[in-house]
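Holo prediction — protoporphyrin IX containing FE.
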Amino acid sequence: LNKDPPGLPPGPPRYPVIGCLAQVQTIEDCKKFQKKYGNTFSLRVGSQTLVTMCDYKTIKEAFSRYEFIDRPNWKVLNFLSDGEMAGVIFRNGVPWQTLRRFLLRHLRDMGMGKSRLDDAILREADELVKDFKTYTHGPTLFPPSINVAILNVIWQLVASRRYDVNDEEIKKFANLVKKFQDDITLLALPDFFPWLRYLPGPLVRRLCREDDLRAAVKIGRGMMEEVVREHRASLDPASPRDVLDEFLLEMESQKDDPHSVFNEQDLIKTIFDLFTAGYDTTSNMVRWVILHMANQPAVQRRVQQQLDQVVSRDTLPSHTHRQQLPYLDAALNEVLRVSSLASSGVPHAAVHDTYLDHYFIPKGTVITGYAGFCHFDPNYWNEPEEFRPERFLNESGKLIIPKEAFIPFGTGKRSCLGEALARMELYMFSAALLQNFTFTAPEGRTVDLSPRPTPGTHFPKDQEILIKPRN
Ligand code: HEM
C-alpha cells in the first residue's frame, strides 16, 4: 500500500493501484463514509487524494479561503485546449481572476433588469410554450425544446444568435455538448491512473473513447471558430453586441501583451465553458421543476393561483412580475434544495500545504464540498425530506433565502458566476410553463424522483409525463 502523509482526514482503506475506487460510486457510499469517518474524510482514487466535506460550516470556511481556490491540474479538464489550462472554470491564478471578472461584468451589464437578457429569455419562454402545446396529446418524454431554449439564451449572451427549435445545427450542437459531458469522465482515467500512459496509445484512447470525443470537439470548435470569424468581420468597436465582441475588443487592446488571457485559445475555451457550465445544469433544473410540480399537485395549484392573480392570461410572466410571485420563487428554491443538482460542485484543489479542521491537506489535494449533504442536514432544515416551499417564505409570505446550508450554486470565491442568469431562466421558464400547462404523471404511474446514477451530479431520469393545457 502507498503511504498517505500523516494528518490527512481519515477514510476507507485504499488498495494498490485503484485506491478505493470500487467503494465510491454514489452519494450513498459517501453517506456511509460520513457515518464512519466523520464530516471530512479522504478517499484515495488511483494516484489522487480527494478530500470530501459534508458539513456546511467546513465547506463555507474552506471555500472562503484563498488556500482552496484552485482547480486540480488534471489534463482532462483542459482536453479542449490540448491539456493547456485555458478558459475560466478550470483555470487558476491571475488568468482565472481576470476572466471571471470580465464575464461577471458583462453578465451584469447585459442582463438582469437591463432588459437585453430578460427580453431574450422571455422570447425563449414564448417559443417553449408554443412548442409544449404540440406535446399535449398523451404521455411524452421531455420536449427537446427545453434544451434549445437554454442553449439559445447562452448563444444570445455570447454571440447574439438564436436557433429555431427544429434547426439541425442546434440539435447537432446540443448532442455534442451532451456527448462531451457524458464521455469526459472516462477521459479522466489517466489523471487518476498515470500508469495507463504506459499502455499502448491506441488501446488507452479506445478505453477512454478519446478519438470519438476529439471528433466531436473538432465539430464544436469549428462552429465556434466560424462564429468568431463572423463577429470579427462585423465588429463595431463603438457598439459591442455581446460577450464575443467585448472579448475581441480586449484582444485588440492587449495584443502587445504576450501574457494576456485575451487570446484566441482562451476565447474559444471561455465560450465553451459557458455552454458546459450553463446548459446541462439549467436544462435539467427545468426538468426537475416539471417533475416536482407533477409530484406535488397542491404546490403546483398554488403557484398557478398566484400566477393567475398577478399576470393576465394573455401575457407571459416577465421579470417585472417576479416580486409579486414569491410562492413560485419559494417553490423553485425548494426544487434547488431537494434536487441538489450540482451535488458535489466542481472540484477545488489546495494551492499549498495547509490545514482544515485540524487535518493536514497537502498542496494539490483535491477537495469537494457536498451541497447534497448540507441541503438535508436536520441541524439546518426542519423535516428536510419534506418538499415544502413555505420554508422559503416568512410569515407575511415574502421570499427569504436562508443564509446557511443552502448552496445550490456553491459558496465563496469560486461560486457559480451564472447564478443570477440561471435563476432568471428558471423563474421565467417555469412561470411561462406553469401559467399555460399542468404537469402530471401519466395515468396509473408515479413520478420517478430518483436521480440518474452519475457521480457528483443529480440529474433527473428521462421519463414520460403528461402536459395538460390550462384553459
Ligand atoms: C441551475 C443551474 C446552475 C447550477 C446549479 C450551477 C452550479 C454551479 C456550481 C455548484 C459551481 C461550482 C462552484 C464551486 O466551484 O465551488 C458552478 C460554477 C460555475 N458556473 Fe454554474 N450553475 C448553474 C448555471 C450556470 C450558468 C447558466 C452559467 C453561465 C452561463 C454558469 C457558469 C458557471 C461557471 C463559469 C462556473 C465556474 C466558476 C469559476 O470557476 O470561477 N453556471 N456552477
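READOUT: DSSP finds 16 helices and eight strands in the chain.
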